[in-house]
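Folding follows sequence. Below is one example:
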Amino acid sequence: MIFFTCGNMPNFQRVIEHIDLLIPELDEDVFMQIGETEYRPINARYEPFLKDQQKYFEQARLIISHGGFSTLEIIYLGKPLIIVPRQLKYGEHFNDHQGSFAEFLNRRFGVPVFLDVSELSSAFIHDYNRVVEFDRSPITRFQSHIEKVVFGETDSGDAGEADG
């Protein structure tokens, strides 16, 4: 299954419609979280909003995302990811932070980013299966340190590590 998510902001019709029109060429089940839009997909199951995207993330072979906050969760889960960010020039967001974040992920991890949705083809979607290699150890260490700070746990050897 391919899972498309566009987050909670309105006005992402250009991408939803483009992907919906590619679906007949994919020969694969697609589920779309479409947000607030007038366009209703004709080739995919969809919901405007989801209380819990986790099951879709886990079931998906591939995730196409707008590049919002859940993008890190997708990378952390080890799922193939394509990003089509919302853009200010189309009135899809209040600035271009998603595009900037997506470009960072492209440079750092090779995540494919499509600013021009017309360049995203059914062949690319069909064949794409690359999982980003992501070293979780710095995040795990950071999370452990934060838990120690929040819950007041200290080790005798931790003195001065908060600054590092």
Summary: Confidence is low (pLDDT under 50) at residues 156-164.
